[in-house]
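step 4 of 6: structure.
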Amino acid sequence: MIDVIQLFPVGIIAGILGYLLGIGGGVIIVPVLVLFFGYSIHSAVAASLVSIVAGSIIITSSNLEKNLVNIPLGLTLETVTIIGALLGGFLSVSVSERPILIMFSIITLVTAYLMWKKTVSVEEIEIENTDEESFYSGAYQDEIRGRVVHYKVKNVRYSMIVSGVAGIISSMLGVGGGFFKVPAMNIFSHVPLRVSTATSNYMVGLTASAGCVAYIFHGFMDPKTAGSIICGILIGSTFATAKLAKVTDSRIKAIFILLLLAISVQMFIRAIRY
Amino acid sequence: MEKRLGYLLKITGFIGIAIAILGLIEVILGSSKPYEAQTFINHLAGALNFNGTDTIMVGIWIIIATPVFGVAYVLVESIKKKNMRLFGICILILAILVTAILMGE
């Protein structure tokens, strides 16, 4: 009973961060379960993955109603992400973890810098409403600006390359690839930050659902732990979708950069201790 | 398409989450056996016998299947709208997901 209640806040925080940043929440759930509750890494990742799927469903269903998810873009990027994840699964067996951790730490630091300096604002992205529709073009109701924002996605191939790399890294290190996909969609493809996080949320649900099946078949899923975190995710995601829709892009950007820096430091420390 | 997809995800997802929470309540009330990895059918049978861990696993399987249902729905919509590019991407995604699941097994 105590375990169940203690795990609720983990899910709540993961649900809120998942909504704001489009990262799923594995970066919170896995370390907390391993470091504070003594779970094995496999059990922690299994519980984390199914919780990510639950959070993604709640958040995406709300975001779809607001037209925030770019489905064609999300599915296009998802193809390379899953292929990257499968490739990463094979690579993780033959490559030492230390150089990957150092590389990941550096890439995360560079991503934080790019987020700080190169983030593209809605005003730079917004286009005139035309009848001409392209495969990736979209429009959404911006609640802060109080108008419908139309945008056109550019350079999808660059975002695809980043998504493929994100898939490899997420599979090798057991973390979500949202840290790279959200900035890539915004900086390379000129997708509004709010749409980038919503589309990333949609994608992490698919990636995580594919990933957690193997853990279930191998007996790593602890139903009680997963059920407890799912309860927390339900509370956190529902709260976030109802109350945090008007958080400004600049705040999302600031939280994202802080989280990237924290992850970069965490990965570097893990590499030194390895 | 987006609103209907959102509705589908909401309904299916919340059913899965509700079943998982029901199982958790059963576990808290002491109505559960130690967990064993089994097939979905066996978990379903266990859930019908009020075994909390099996009930949670049934919920978890529904949650996992929900995003795949979502892609299948987009696939059907792409056929209706004759959007062959989206159709191709959905087929590719479903093929990769099935491959990933089979590799995992």
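step 5 of 6: annotate
 - Chain B is about 80% helix and 0% strand.
 - Chain B touches chain A through 52 residues (CB under 8 Å).
step 6 of 6: archive
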